């Protein structure tokens, strides 16, 4: 059945029922919720912790195409990219509102798959979907707002503006895997099954580093961003906001063997600028990073350091400590920025 | 200059500066704000009051066309429709996040006009714009999330589900004015200047009934919705959620003389189903409504009553108390619902 046959009210009713069945009353968000979907606004009991909010859209033709992203993965990802922002502030996600646009010709089962993907991730993080809006439009657009909070009023935030010269630059996980996955899907590349699965998963099902964000806060890290645009772009954001420079040693970049093996000299460009990894990029003293490495459930890699140079400047160094030309580092986009 | 020439980062920088200049540090939202636009998420100090959140999109071709809505009015309205939802819960709006999509060919001055309209209304209500997202897309879309709160943890909410048989049904302001304004603009109708100004204003600059919502809470009203879809549709929402019926006396509907005079027998249909009035529709005892009338800064009109009939049923009565056929009441749409 198509959405246009079910009608807007029918669709809202169907999605509301999915959401309310999935509502986890054990989670903190579930316990504090007073009203979810179905009134003029959602309502919950507030508390004195620091509140966080972020919004992000996944737009068809801009951020995804349905040829390379399934509906269920799209739902997961729409929520994941926002949870990643909350993670990068050192917060815990609590409530989600979803503004959805799609053509009337969309199959109802595709929309329920979208919500199933969203609810799967929401459940993992105890997030309650509490509101939304549904419109008929020519292209699919999922705009998700997440409201979260720090554990307490006293907990410090992870910001872009707290990096200090002398600190090391580190990242969680691996870089370039999602971009490699997108390239594999777009160009119909074929590798061994395990490599293909890990690349596809990195692109389609990014796993927000919420637990790692909490570890960063707990060990005194202050400057953090999530990598959505790509390592260099996002490190520039930190450097601009903190009025510092950064040096990256390209030989240190953590790149999955599956990416190195299958993308050869393209791997570096993917790691530097591929984007959509949703890893956390942070700066701290070597001492703090050692403690983070010991506590984190994922690999943590030091990739460079913060320096007192020109605000916003990011320099790449090769294995001998010589500067690397950005334009030669593997991604065309650099030439125009 | 076009948005594509300025670039996404340039546009975000321009809009962030507009927003931060407008930030009212005297408002409660302004005082509690820790971080606005510019990091991975906005952050503010929470409190123990009941928190409210709602999201709504204004999409080009679905909710507006640029031929009848100016950019500055579009900004005002994108925020207003959401503040109206918070008002209808008995809450006060605090923080806004704006996800904006527009074509690269849009003039930068049109986007700044959009934000100027939004900031004008935000200032009136002490709302801080704290986050956003900007994308290049073929059609304009403004998805606004508002986070608000009740005055205290003890304040009751205005919900759709609290209507009781025997209560009167009342509305703030006038009905059908916005729809009359849209018709005037679409069909290039010409009336006297004062009438045209009031109709255009009702359509282009709806004024959210936040103060009136507070008066409703203060006097013990419990069931409220804002009229976005039209009186009948929205009253049905109350009746469905409250498992009751309602009777409306059509002779009592408050319609502006400018609408009655210029739309003749179409005026009734506009009042019943025109939508976009963003007035508050509520139910309460006659005694409570008397107190609301005495306290409210705008007209409050009793238009009918809640009865114990079939859940969701809305009946229209003429001056003699006889049922009116919906299909004859002036709006084609009724025939298909």
What does this structure look like?
Chain A has 2 domains: 147 residues, 60s Ribosomal Protein L30, Chain: A (2-Layer Sandwich), CATH 3.30.1330; 163 residues, PurM-like C-terminal domain (Phosphoribosyl-aminoimidazole Synthetase, Chain A, domain 2, Alpha-Beta Complex). Chain A has 12 helices and 12 strands. In chain A, strands 8-10-7-11-9-12 form a 6-stranded mixed β-sheet. A 4-stranded mixed β-sheet of chain A has the order 3-6-4-5. The longest helix of chain A has 17 residues. The radius of gyration of chain A is 21 Å and the shape is globular.
Short description:
Chain A is of the alpha+beta class and 337 residues long. Chain A has 2 domains: 3-149, PurM-like, N-terminal domain (60s Ribosomal Protein L30, Chain: A), CATH 3.30.1330; 168-330, PurM-like C-terminal domain (Phosphoribosyl-aminoimidazole Synthetase, Chain A, domain 2), CATH 3.90.650.
């Amino acid at each position: 059945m198509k959405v246009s046959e079910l009608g807007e009210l029918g669709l809202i009713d169907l999605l509301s029922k999915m959401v309310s069945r999935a509502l986890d009353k054990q989670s903190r968000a579930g316990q504090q919720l007073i009203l979810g979907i179905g009134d003029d606004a959602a309502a919950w009991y507030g508390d004195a912790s620091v509140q966080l909010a972020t919004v992000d859209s996944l737009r068809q033709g801009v951020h995804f195409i349905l040829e390379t992203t399934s509906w269920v993965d799209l739902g997961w990802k729409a929520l994941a990219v926002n949870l990643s922002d909350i993670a990068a502030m050192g917060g815990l996600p609590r409530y989600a509102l979803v503004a959805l646009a799609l053509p009337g010709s969309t199959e109802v089962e595709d929309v329920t798959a979208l919500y199933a993907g969203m609810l799967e991730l929401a459940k993992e993080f105890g997030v309650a979907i509490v509101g939304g809006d549904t419109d008929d439009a020519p292209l699919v657009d999922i705009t998700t707002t997440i409201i979260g909070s720090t554990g307490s009023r006293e907990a410090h935030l992870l910001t872009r503006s707290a990096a200090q010269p002398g600190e090391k630059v580190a990242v969680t996980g691996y870089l370039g895997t999602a971009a490699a996955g997108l390239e594999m899907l777009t160009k119909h590349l074929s590798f061994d099954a395990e490599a293909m699965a890990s690349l596809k998963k990195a692109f389609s099902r990014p796993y927000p580093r919420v637990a790692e964000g909490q570890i960063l806060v707990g060990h005194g890290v202050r400057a953090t961003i999530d990598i959505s645009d790509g390592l260099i772009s996002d490190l520039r954001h930190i450097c601009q906001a903190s009025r510092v420079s950064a040096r990256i040693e390209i030989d240190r970049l953590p790149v999955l063997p599956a990416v190195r093996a299958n993308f050869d000299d393209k791997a570096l460009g993917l790691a530097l600028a591929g984007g959509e990894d949703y890893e956390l990029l942070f700066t701290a003293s070597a001492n703090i990073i050692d403690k983070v490495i010991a506590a984190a459930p994922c690999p943590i890699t030091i990739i460079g350091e913060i320096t007192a140079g020109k605000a916003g400047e990011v320099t790449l160094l090769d294995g001998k400590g010589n500067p690397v030309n950005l334009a030669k580092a593997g991604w065309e986009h650099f030439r125009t920025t």
